[in-house]
Amino acid sequence: MFSLSNVLYVRSNKTGNAVTRIDPRYAPTLATVGLFVAMLVVGAVRFPNFLSAQVFLNLLIDHSFLVVVAVGMTFVILSGGIDLSVGAVVALSMILSAKLLQQGWSPGLVIPLVLSIGFAFGTAQGLLIQYFDIQPFIATLAGMFLARGLCYVTSLDSIPIRDPFFTAMSQTRIGLLFIRTPDYHVYGQVIVPVSDAFVSPAVLIALVVVAIAFFFLHHTRFGRTVYAIGGNENSAVLMGLAVARTKVLVYAISGLCAATGGILWNLYSLSGFPLAGIGMELDAIAAVVVGGALLTGGYGYVLGSVVGVLILGLVQTFIAFDGTLSSWWTRIFIGTLLLIFILLQRLFSRKGFTVPGRRPVANVPVRPLDTPAALP
Amino acid sequence: MNAVLATFMKRRMAWPLIALLLLLAADQIARPGFLSVRMQDGHLYGNVIDIIRNAAPIALIGLGMTLVIASRGIDLSVGAVVAIAGAISCNYIVNAPVQGSLSAALIGVVLAIVLGLVLGAWNGFLVSTVGIQPIIATLVLMVAGRGIAQLITSGQIITVHNDYYKAIGDGYVLTLPIPVLITAAAFILAGVLTRKTALGTLIEAIGINPIASRLAGLKARNIIWIVYVVSGLCATIAGLMITANVTAADANNGGLFIELDAILAVVLGGTSLRGGKYSLLGTVVGAFVLSTLTTTVYNFGIPANENLVFEAPVVIAVCLLQSPKTMELWQRWRRSSQLQAKGITV
Predict the structure, then answer these.
(1) Of A79, A211, B116, B324, which residue is 20 to 30 A from A167 by alpha carbon distance?
(2) Residue A196 within a domain
(3) Could you tell me if A137 lies within 8 Å of chain B, comparing CB atoms?
(4) Which residues in chain B come in under a pLDDT of 50?
């Protein structure tokens, strides 16, 4: 999948010399990785201490839940859909687990329960989308309203978590023995490395989720069906693929990932609050797009989305390190990044976007005959 | 009568209209006198007036959104444009030589409108000239826009003291609230411009089949520019209404989620997100449903923050009822039950 021979190919130019070209399909993802490396380099040059292992690991620690949510979103976007409910589902699972733990439920019950609620929530949205032909945008928007409303019904205030298991999990630091982080620099010169770099258990869980998602997307029939639906749903149906089941599952997975994200956020903040994750769906979508996926579906990688989340995190780290920039620059930077990536995709993509009246479009959905808006 | 009813029920607007009437009826039953309207200080007062006034900004944004959606697009950036419009106008008025003067209010409003037109043109540029999918093109401004609004207000909530500006949000002319009059005027203007000329049909043509309309010699690019600029303009004016109503510009929360409300109003009104045929009147009904729903929730004494729980099922129900798939299933079920009644098993 990621072998170099796939990404680069050799062909002859006009003078007959062999030149190496980049496969345009990989261009956005390569640009993502390139940008990430470039940001690390710029950060390392501008700020001392920027390129320490712990700064990098903190990116993962601070965004472990966003990584998981973005993974779920990747499935949905690859299939050509969108899920606006993830932020609200994250908040719902957060507040539910906090509430249940407060009432003395055991974590062994709470975690599976919350995860299955997330899965069921996603499944319900998927069923609405697949079997009642409701647009993903509208169905998940209604889901977002419902989940957010349920958060407020559950509790209006922040609920602290005092459960021993959650507390232990959140305080555990898993040291990475082989990576030592320098504690301080003197004019760029590294003095003795003192402490071990560490990650939280949430990071490991997030990485496991990424690995599972990677396996399912790239090594199973289900994953290939997801790509096929995003490429052209009608063709996928004609090929006899299990389109209906896959489309429902994609939203179920997104719901499950959002619920997992909620639990991870519980671990991170040791609380649940109903206003959590407002606008998180935007961050997740931005991460997936910056990660090189096409919002029309069919192209993109889970690992790209992970790098996308890290890039969004780096933007925040930059602003934190800089100190003079106000927090609202984060949004402006993320918007600009989105724009750059969308333009890049436009340049490199061979797949047609819905450009009204410009050129033949590859993925115009075939309008069913019974749609009332067919003819005036 | 039955025939009239049958043609009515075939219209997609029928279900939201029924939902609206049911909600109002429930309100009236729960609290007799709910629907009464009285005169006070030369203004009309009453719950119905409040519902209409609260629906005005949503309907106005929905107007622009309807045209965008009809052209098979979507404009996610309207909420951010609302915040920017409030921010730029309030920022000017607060720093104007005389804060309470008419000229300060006018220049503030003009500045906001110019900026709104520019932002709309930016969306139109990305969609029509660069050729980016509408949902992504407008996502850029949706994400960056609130940052821009905060940049203008330096992250503060700007409070203004200007009666002329305030009137845009809560003033009255001829016993009616000004926002309602502005929105009504906008709808009449849009209705005349799109339905009495070919513009509406051209927008629908692009929405139904972009390729065919191009082959038919339609300059789709210009029309797409127009719809996004109109959407930007509508969002700006709605932003002024919202900001003026509370006489404060809040870059973070001004117009938060209003893009979703506007899209819902459009969809509830029977305009398909797939583009094509649209109904401006439907959007008004959709906006009324949303605004009535909020008022109903208050009326029943349900805590304000729980109204989302009630909004979601109504949205899902209306969408389900409008879905052609549901019709199909219903007809299939009716046919089979009719056959069963005749003793035929399928």
Answers:
(1) A211
(2) no
(3) yes
(4) none
Instruction: Please report, for residues A4, A29, A67, A136, the alpha-carbon distance to residue A33 in angstroms, rounded to integers and kept in the order given.
Output: 14, 6, 16, 30
Residues A17-37, mean pLDDT to the nearest whole number = 74
pLDDT at position A354, please? 39
Picking from B131, B221, B264, the nearest residue to A353 by CB comes out as: B131
DSSP string across B104-124? HHHHHHHHHHHHHHHHHHHHH
Flag if A356 and B309 touch (Cβ within 8 Å).
no
Amino acid at B124: G
The model's confidence at residue A262, banded by pLDDT at 50, 70 and 90, is very high
Question: Residues B142, B143, B146, B152: is their CA dihedral positive or negative?
Answer: negative
Residue A125 reports pLDDT greater than 60: yes
For the stretch A216-261, pLDDT in tens is: 999 999 999 999 999 889 999 999 999 999 999 999 999 999 999 9
Enumerate residues 6+ apart whose C-beta is below 8 A from B345.
B339
Residue A362: C-alpha distances to residues A234, A351, B26 (Å): 12, 7, 49
Contact B147 A331 (CB under 8 A): yes
Q: What is the pLDDT of residue A226?
A: 95
Measured CA to CA, the distance from residue A20 to residue A22 in angstroms comes to 7
Question: Is A373 within the bounds of a domain?
Answer: no
A82 Cβ under 8 Å from any chain B Cβ: yes
CATH of the domain at B177: 1.10.3470
Q: Which of B202, B208, B234 is nearest to B63 (CA)?
A: B234
β-bridge pairing B158-159 and A8-12: unpaired
B141 is in which domain, residue-wise? 2-341
Query: Does residue A6 belong to any structural domain of this protein?
Result: no
In a domain, A19, yes or no: no
Which among A251, A319, A254 is positioned nearest to A68, based on CA atoms? A254
Please choose, from the candidates A220, A368, A237, A219, the residue with its C-alpha nearest in 3D space to the C-alpha of residue A228.
A237
DSSP-derived secondary structure letter, A174? E
* pLDDT exceeds 80 at position A105: yes
Q: Which residue range(s) make up the domain with A280? A: 27-164+201-350
Closest to A71 (Cα-Cα) out of A364, A285, A318, A375: A285
Judge whether B346 lies within some domain: no
Digit-coded pLDDT (tens) for A53-67: 778 888 888 999 999
Q: How far is B214 from chain A (nearest CA, A)?
A: 5
**Candidate from A137, A149, A376 with C-beta closest to B204:** A376
CATH of the domain at A289: 1.10.3470
